Each structure stands twice: as structure tokens, then as C-alpha cells.
Amino acid sequence: MIPDRKTWISGYRTLWMLVMFDLPVTEREDRKAATQFRNFLLDEGFAMAQFSVYYRLLSGKDAAEAMERRIQANVPEDGSINVLTITDKQYETMRVYQGKRRGTPEKPHQLTLF
Predict the structure, then answer these.
(1) What would the mean pLDDT of 86-107 be, rounded to a whole number?
(2) Residue 8 domain-assigned?
(3) 90-109 burial, b for 16+ CB within 10 Å, e for fewer?
(4) The pLDDT of residue 13
(5) pLDDT value of position 10
(6) Distance CA 72, CA 16 (A)
(7) Does 22 map to a domain?
(8) How far apart are CA 90 and CA 88, in angstroms?
(9) Domain count, the chain
(10) Gap between the Cα atoms of 21 and 51, Å rounded
(11) CATH number of the domain residue 39 falls in
């Protein structure tokens, strides 16, 4: 049975927004601006994929355009911000590969000098 079109969510209508940024953090003011932008993304419901890559599911094109305007209004003075919006079907094809996790290095043995 085909679900009712009013309640059916299409993988082509729901969108994923990826925000990738490279912000300077050399000066104290730069770090503050970068932290404020990162906190803005978290407050807007984004999740961290990698250190400077955040993502969020949106209900459609109108929601994506509104979110992009909010991001644009919160862009720090310096740095680079890239926004990529893809359909849920495209997001489905993403593959994630993780290498072996590095453990904490073993402590060296104490040397006896006497």
C-alpha cells in the first residue's frame, strides 16, 4: 500500500545542510568569533561531523533557504564558510571510513639515575 501523500516524506524533498568552515584562531578575538559561530550552529540544531564540518536535516527548500540566511547573518568577519545542501537520497550514498583509533601512548618507564 502506498502511504498517503500528505504524510509521506520523500527522500528528494528532505534536505541535509552541511556547513564547512575554516576560521582563524590565532588571536583571542578570532577564537571568540569562531566559538560564537560554532555555538550558533549547535543552537540551530546542527551536529558535528568533523571539527569544522556540521550537518542538519531540514524539511525542504524553504527551510534550507531560511537557514542559509541565518547562517549568512552570523558569519564571522574573517575566515571561509561553505554551505552545501543535498537531498536525503544523496546523503544516503555517503560512505564513512574510519581508520584504526589511536590509543594513548604508553608511559615510558622511569629511569634510575643512581
Answers:
(1) 82
(2) no
(3) eeeeeeeeeeeeeeeeeeee
(4) 80
(5) 63
(6) 17
(7) yes
(8) 5
(9) 1
(10) 9
(11) 3.30.70.240
Backbone phi and psi for residue 48, each to the nearest 5 degrees, phi listed first: -85, 125
**Domain ranges, residue 45:** 15-90
Residue 29 domain-assigned (yes or no): yes
Binned at pLDDT 50, 70 and 90, residue 4 comes out as low
Rounded Cα gap, residues 32 and 92, in angstroms: 35
* Three-class SS state of 27: coil
Asked if residue 100 belongs to a domain, the reply is no
* Per-residue pLDDT reduced to its tens digit, 44-72: 999 999 999 999 999 999 999 999 999 99
In contact, 78 and 30? CB cutoff 8 Å: yes
Kindly report, residue by residue over 5-31, the tens digit of the pLDDT.
554 566 568 999 999 999 999 999 999
DSSP states of 64-98:
HHHHHHHHHHT--SSSEEEEEEEEHHHHHT-----
